[in-house]
Amino acid sequence: MRAHPATKFLKAVDSQTQEMLGQATWLVLDKPLEPEQLEVDGYDTEDDKEFSRLLHEQQMRYRIGASREANGHLLVLDSLAVRAEHRRKGVGSKLIQWGTKIADEMGLDAVVEASMEGAPVYKKHGFESMGKMTYDMPAKFEQRRTPDLLFMKRLSRQNASSSA
After folding, report:
1. Contact 98, 10 (CB under 8 A)
2. pLDDT tens-digit profile of 92-112?
3. pTM reported for the whole predicted model
4. E strands of 31-138, at which residues?
5. Cβ–Cβ under 8 Å, residues 154 and 127
């Protein structure tokens, strides 16, 4: 899968040891996202491949809807990961702050799909839950576990003050 053209890759590195502590991927959109056909490889069965593709499509509908609602002008936190031994030390917050600063400077809202573990840190940075993400999967996949995620949105400072 190729990176979206608006992708910004960030990494947090310890300045003394040069150890990578975490990473984030932000999309800085200037036009609405469109549904994409995901190319999936490396699965043992066709069912696994189909399940992965459907899961991706179901998750993307939230982003696509938010990007259309914002006329394409939106920041999306595509991924955030912090090494386990460096969690709860502010690494994730710094990576989130990069995007929220850009969002405020550009007057853009930001969205993220948050795990239940990660939701509190996003909330600390102004993201609010828009609800639990749901999945409409075919009956043959009803026994498979889907991710437990919240779709969260943060209004830019400009949008937050105009809606107050």
Report:
1. yes
2. 999 999 999 999 999 999 999
3. 0.88
4. 73-82, 109-115, 128-132
5. yes
